[in-house]
Amino acid sequence: xxxxxxxxxxxxxxxxxxxxxxxxxxxxxxxxxxxxxxxxxxxxxxxxxxxxxxxxxxxxxxxxxxxxxxxxxxxxxxxxxxxxxxxxxxxxxxxxxxxxxxxxxxxxxxxxxxxxxxxxxxxxxxxxxxxxxxxxxxxxxxxxxxxxxxxxxxxxxxxxxxxxxx
Length: 166
Known about the structure:
Elements: E1 5-7, H1 10-26, E2 33-38, H2 40-51, E3 57-67, E4 70-78, H3 84-87, E5 91-99, H4 103-112, E6 118-126, E7 136-140, E8 144-146
Parallel strand pairs: 1-8, 2-3, 2-5, 5-6, 6-7
Antiparallel strand pairs: 3-4
Helix pairs in contact: 1-2
């Protein structure tokens, strides 16, 4: 990985989400459900939900990254795990901010396979090393991405009683 970073502003994210939705619509794909991969995928799923007029949004909580280029050995789905009965027979669009290694997307996509009519993936960014080739991608990069929602430190750290300085 190079030190150069991809910078995404809130304004650029708005453009990216709209263009991603236009690509999905132009492809004729009409998801019944958008399944967000939390946390970064929440922003993408919400934006796509509005743009594609899909109100049925679900969340898969997955832990994998612990820092810049630091991750657990494998991604794990955290409770509450989506109920496959709620997804059954649906066209599902899995939404995330980035397909980096692809491991998180693969975990969620494989969770859906066999329970849904169709599952496709939409991301803002896809990296060349991703094991999952997403059907819908706004931009491709090999850089670390600074997303507007994750570049600043938390206001409060879990387990800490104090508010952090700005």
